[in-house]
Fold:
Amino acid sequence: MKNMRRAILILFVISLLPTAVLAQGEFDTQHISDKVREKLSAGKQAVEEEIQLPAAGAAKDSPFYFADRAMERLRLKITKDDIKKARLHMKFAEERLSEAKKLAEQNKPELSDETIADYEKHLENAANKIEKAKKDGKDIDEITNNIKEKTSKHIEVLQRVLEKVPETAKPAIQKAIEISQERQEEIPQKLEQIKEKVMEQTQEEPEKETEEVKEENKGEKIQNKGWH
Structure:
């Protein structure tokens, strides 16, 4: 009888084993899934944080707006180096973009649109300063790559913003995306044109010098004939 009870107990324990293993497997799977989701979420958050824009300056609806812009103009005026000026214009462009984003999220489409126009001006001024620096023979590779990276980041941020802002603010954000894309393509094209012009001028100078030498030699021959 005792052996019978022991056998029944063993069979009962064995019958519970698959259920316990299955439950443990389900727990492990769920645990792993939760961990994966946490990592993916953390990764997504890290990417979003990485491409955040800098803090906005004083927006057009701020009482400090005019003082802020006056300070920017002063900084540009006292900065003489073209590459440094390009960096400043890029910094101010990013601030305008942050302000436009903030105004769009506050459903102030007109002010956001005006701020996008200021953003475009700063990008254009940055491109012009880089162009001038290139003509003066300065190394512009670093600043050019920096602007390409920043405009690419602007596009990513704005595309996210576009999904969240009210419908009335979407045209301003879409316009900012288009401007960023245009400038990203335009700057390398302009610089390539400058490079081609410089190469043409370099090739023309020896030809010009050769013509001048020929003219001088011709004049000397005529003069020598006159003496004889």
Notes: The CA atoms of residues 54 and 95 lie 7 Å apart. The first helix runs from residue 2 to 50.
